[in-house]
Amino acid sequence: MIQYLQENMWLLWLTLAFILMIVEVSSGDFVFTCFAIGALGSSLASLFADSIWLQVLVFAVCSTLSLIFIRPPLTRWLHGKQKERISNADALIGRVGKLVEGIEPNESGYVQIDGDQWKAVTTGGKAIAKGERVRIVERESLIVTVEPAG
Length: 150
Description:
Layout: H1 2-7, H2 9-27, H3 31-48, H4 52-69, H5 71-79, E1 96-101, E2 109-113, E3 116-122, E4 133-140, E5 143-148
Parallel strand pairs: 3-5
Antiparallel strand pairs: 1-2, 1-4, 2-3, 4-5
């Protein structure tokens, strides 16, 4: 088995590149993509050189060059000109949902957005009936403040 891997190091590097691209799907930051590019470079190098040290050197150089020259344009392309990426619950602000439980004055209810239900209160303590569309204007912990979407 060891002899097979030594004779077919390209396959090992190619498998590593494939695994790194799978990990990249969950990351989305293009770091693992750069390492996958390094593994592809090493896969090509292993076809021409048997030295494992040379292959590791090619991996390091290709990965570093990818991090310097390929990752920045990819992240700009993906994230646009935004300075800060809004994620998780903060991304709810401004979204429109439907009340699944009406909100009485100075009480709370529940709003559904993308299949998730959030505890909701209204601005100014106004009542909003079940089934109405509302816009999220603020979030504090797990409670969102809503207003009629109009």
